[in-house]
Amino acid sequence: MTRQLQQAADGWRSTLGVPDEILAERIRKDRVDILVDLSGHSAGNRLLVFCRKPAPVQVSAWGHANGTGVSTIDYLLLDRVSAPPERRHYYAEQIIDLPNVVCYQPPAILPPVSPLPASQGKVFTFGCVNRCEKISDRVIGLWSRILDAVPHAGLLVKDARLDSMDLKKRLNDKFRAVGVDVERVLLIGHTPHFEHLETYNEVDVGLDPFPHNGGVSTLEALTMGVPIVTLAGRTMPSCLSASMLSAMDMREWIARNDDEYVRIAVDAAGNHARLAAVRRTLRQRLVQSPIGDTASYTREVERFY
To answer: Three-state SS string across the chain, please?
Structure first.
């Protein structure tokens, strides 16, 4: 990937290990017009370079599921679902609306989408493939209500960190505390990426965590034909999946409160024919949506620049 980027650019500078002040001065000398942050507050970020305002226009986008709070960054690229107009006064940056908060290009080699597992005689399975720290006590409480309402269903949870027996025990203890029989819960740890994607062939309906939704995990689920039930919140990280589902015209999967989240999941479990139809078309629907139309998305970014 680095080689591809180098070949596409007229100039290339490595910033690894370069102190903030020296990097800022180099950017000034290179007369960079638009400087773009792709890290936000994630590890290894260079926000202290942006604080020095080495370029006349500074932008943040894509690499961090929130604004930066840095007043020297002028613009933040989001969309109208992830950052509704009535909440934009909270941001330090001016919000620019793109067709969607992200675009996505699926891997070149993908597992085929399986038929709906429940239609093949398997136990109906809800699934969450996300980092375990996103699974709050409130999330577990709603999942227990869903499992109560669909008594023969199971729940699959996958995270690389579930290779830890200690983490497995802690998560199972949380399920027991709300009355869930842990025999109904399958906890899966790390697998290679292709096999990771194949996990979705065991899932009938995805359950999004909150208040921090899935990001890539939501996109991968949709690519594998699995619709996601999400609960839209009041912050950008809690509207990620709602943004993606809205871009695909799948707003019926977006809940606005706890009861709605439970209802959408339970109703989905009761209509296998509908789920099977959604599953057959979901990958193509994603590719044809603003999320998957990478060329048009790029034109919109270039138009803003």
So the answer is: CHHHHHHHCCCCCCCCCCCHHHHHHHHHHCCCCEEEECCCCCCCCCHHHHCCCCCCEEEEECCCCCCCCCCCCCEEEECCCCCCHHHHHHCCCEEEECCCCCCCCCCCCCCCCCCCHHHHCCCCEEEEECCHHHECHHHHHHHHHHHHHCCCCEEEEECHHHHCHHHHHHHHHHHHHCCCCHHHEEEECCCCHHHHHHHHHHCCEEECCECCCCCHHHHHHHHCCCCEEEECCCCHHHHHHHHHHHHCCCHHHEECCHHHHHHHHHHHHCCHHHHHHHHHHHHHHHHHCCCCCHHHHHHHHHHHC
Q: What is the mean pLDDT of residues 300-305?
A: 96
* C-alpha angle 115-121-126 in degrees, rounded to nearest 5: 70
CA-based nearest residue to 205, from 185, 192, 222: 222
Q: Positive or negative, the Cα torsion across 284, 76, 27, 303? A: positive
Q: What is the pLDDT of residues 192-234, one digit of tens each?
A: 999 999 999 999 999 999 999 999 999 999 999 999 999 999 8
Partnered with residue 97 across adjacent β-strands are 78
C-alpha pair distances (Å), 273 with each of 56, 124, 194, 236, 245: 55, 13, 27, 33, 20
**Which residues, in sequence order, are CB contacts of 199 under 8 Å at separation 6+?**
127, 129, 156, 158, 188, 191
Place of tokens 């842990």: 182
Q: Are 70 and 94 in contact (CB under 8 A)?
A: no
pTM, two decimal places:
0.93
